[in-house]
Amino acid sequence: MRDYGKVYTRFWLKQNVLSWSDSAKLLGLYLLTCPHCNLLGCFRLPIGYVASDLNWDEQQVAKALNELEQDQFLIRCEESGWTLIRSFLKHNPIENPNQGKAAFRLLKDVPADFIGMASLLKSLAAFQARLPEEFSSLFMPDGNPVRDSQRSDDSERSNKPTVKTVNQIQFEDFWDVQIRKEKKAKAKEEWLRMGLNEDHELALEVLTRWKEQRDNRLQYQDRTKTPMPHNWLLNRQWEDEYVRIDEVQQSSTSLKGSNHQLNIEESNRRIAESWAGPGIREVRSSAGG
Q: What are the boundaries of the region Disordered (predicted)?
């Protein structure tokens, strides 16, 4: 049983979450933080447990679960009660080999025929370096069991350069999309210090969040206000909440709407003055004096 669960504040800002019913929002938050959840975000959760914890009837629980499943927040087997929160490991990564051992023990408890097994294995593959070697010998990255003929030292050795190449590409991808390409060595050093060469899932998250911020963060439209890559990584700025360009545009549009008549009058005055030439402006100035 966990002592706590982690939820990012941007959970409440996601468009799909905003569209959920109140019951689905509460249930989603419950699943992320409830004592039944574990390192994998995959656990057995009979409807009765939820009904008891939230003081709901089972019909309300079933309806909210179905809503979350339809929105691909979770995968659930109704018969067994086994439930997988799809992006759990994306936001709650396996941070060290000790957690990897615990996660692998939990994996052994999940039924092999669970409908979410392939998705779970795919998520776990991103943390293969922190999982016991037994994981790589039993499963392929796509979630399929490895055949006995494939389990050889040669195949494992041949996979290592591939992984290394992918890691290098991930950093280069991050570097290639930077606004300020300064102090590359420091940026790469920070990338490696954070373990992004091994934590593929987090590396993808960091890269994706940078692209979002680069394209949508109002501050970054000014190059002088854009942080250098190594500082952005060091300060974990991919976790920032920020003012978006479209939010400012919406606010500006709303403000224009409230002063719509004033803007029309001002526009008409300027057009009239441009047609009339300097004479009308001189008359207006004299009248004002």
A: 138-162
**pTM of the predicted protein model:** 0.50
Banded model confidence at residue 174, pLDDT cuts 50, 70, 90? confident
Query: Do 234 and 286 share a domain, yes or no?
Result: no
Distance of CA 260 to the CA centre of its chain: 39
Residue 162 banded pLDDT, cuts 50, 70, 90: very low
Q: Residue 126: name the closest of 208, 41, 199, 39 by CA.
A: 199
Coil, helix or strand at residue 161: helix
The dihedral built from the CA positions of residue 44, 49, 54 and 59, taken in this order, carries a sign that is: positive
> What tokens does 72 get?
């691909």
Residue 32 domain boundaries: 9-150
Residue 153: pLDDT above 60? no
- From 121, 150, 179, the end of a domain falls on 150
Same domain, 48 and 67: yes
Token pair of 92, please?
């709650």
**How many CA atoms lie less than 13 Å away from 68 in the CB half-sphere?**
26
